[in-house]
Write a structure and sequence with these properties.
This protein is an alpha/beta fold and 337 residues long. The chain has two domains: 178 residues, Alpha-Beta Barrel (TIM Barrel), CATH 3.20.20.10; 122 residues, Lyase, Ornithine Decarboxylase, Chain A, domain 1. The protein is built from twelve helices and 19 strands. The strands form five sheets. A seven-stranded parallel sheet has the order 3-4-5-6-7-8-9. Strands 1, 11, 14, 17, 18 and 19 form a six-stranded mixed sheet that branches. It starts with a strand and ends with a strand. Bound molecules: pyridoxal-5'-phosphate. This is Alanine racemase.
Length: 337
């Protein structure tokens, strides 16, 4: 039996609405909507009125167009990476975010007349045209959107936010503009421009602290055994029972995106009762101390009301984004809301 991942589309919609800041609110659905399922997530947001979607790769854009049908705008962050991609952009009415002089030239040769966006680098040094490049662009029409991305928006007081904001105004004094992902959206009207691009906040993650939780992950118990004082559990015999213990073995492991680094720092929940994971987390199995439960549980929750993606991320030394996008293929996915 597979573990069950419940995805609350109603919570995603509510988070999208809660991020409205006067500007148009877009939706970032790259990486299979952060691992939660491109088609159901994009459909739910389109039903609620989202009209601008963002993906990372052109193939994701093709899949998204199939889901949404004609109408909504689909921007592709990586832009025109190869001349051979021009057909995908044309045939699926996708908007490339052009990132370099080379991409702009390729666009002019292979896609002239097609709608495009310009991505500017205002200080992150990852993707986008630099100020010096702008003087050397071939003549194009008006971009549908000019965008840039903040490096430090999860830390509102970081001075780089204001520096990048000023650079964006300087490089793009006019036009339809977008600077804010989730963090920037939360930093207020100065950062909102014409269109915001939240991703993680839709899916219940920080830095949107007020987000409704979106995912619940319940792991089925395969068996429960008694372990005597002095006996060990799991690979490496790392954990040794200090009291007569009942250990439940659950069906999920690092092959399902539950990082091995979580190890014994992980807590699972039986309703409102916390149960500590013990021993090493393995590929398909997690062992949990359920001695303090009155009855052997049928399932334990790893993600739920008591423990969200950011709590699990903290236990693994990572971020909620990675927890979500790592959620594996072996879960039975159930959509509610
Ligand atoms: C991923 C991404 C976003 C969304 O970021 P969140 O922090 O998830 O809101 C927005 N813009 C760009 C360019 C991105 O790569």
């Amino acid at each position: 039996m597979q573990a069950e991942l419940t995805i609350d589309l109603g919570a995603i919609r509510a988070n999208w609405r809660a991020l409205h800041r006067g500007a148009e609110t877009g939706a970032v659905v790259k990486a299979d909507a952060y691992g939660l399922g491109l088609a159901p997530v994009a459909r739910a947001l389109a039903e609620d009125g989202a009209r601008s979607f963002f993906v990372a790769q052109v193939e994701e854009g093709v899949a998204l167009r199939e889901v949404l049908g004609p109408g909504p705008e689909i921007y592709v962050f990586s832009g025109l990476m190869a001349a051979g991609d021009a057909g995908f952009y044309r045939d699926n009415d996708l908007i490339p975010c052009l990132n370099s002089i080379e991409q702009v030239s390729d666009f002019a040769s292979h896609l002239a007349e097609h709608t495009f966006a310009l991505q500017l680098d205002t200080g992150m040094n990852r993707l986008g045209l630099e100020a010096a490049d702008l003087a050397h662009l071939p003549t194009l029409g008006e971009p549908r959107l000019i965008l840039s991305h903040l490096a430090c928006a999860d830390t509102p007081e970081h001075p780089q936010n204001a520096t990048q904001l000023a650079a964006f105004h300087e490089m793009a004094p006019a036009g339809r503009r977008s600077l804010a992902a989730t963090g920037g959206t939360l930093m207020g009207a100065n950062y909102a421009f014409d269109l915001t691009r939240p991703g993680i906040g839709l899916y219940g993650g920080l830095p949107f602290a007020a987000a409704q939780p979106v995912v619940k992950l319940s792991l089925p118990v395969i068996q429960v055994r008694d372990v005597a004082v002095g006996e060990s559990v799991g690979y490496g015999a790392d954990w040794i029972a200090q009291r007569p213990s009942r250990i439940a073995t659950l069906s999920a492991g690092y092959a399902d995106g539950l990082f091995r680094a979580l190890g014994a720092g992980l807590t699972l929940w039986s309703g409102d009762t916390p149960c500590p994971a013990v021993g090493r987390l393995s590929m398909d199995l997690i062992t949990v101390d359920v001695t303090d439960l009155a009855d052997a549980p049928a399932t334990l929750d790893l993600l739920g009301p008591h423990q969200g993606i950011d709590a699990v991320a903290a236990a693994a030394g990572t971020i909620g984004y990675e927890v979500l996008t790592a959620l594996g293929a072996r879960y039975a996915r159930r959509y509610v809301g």
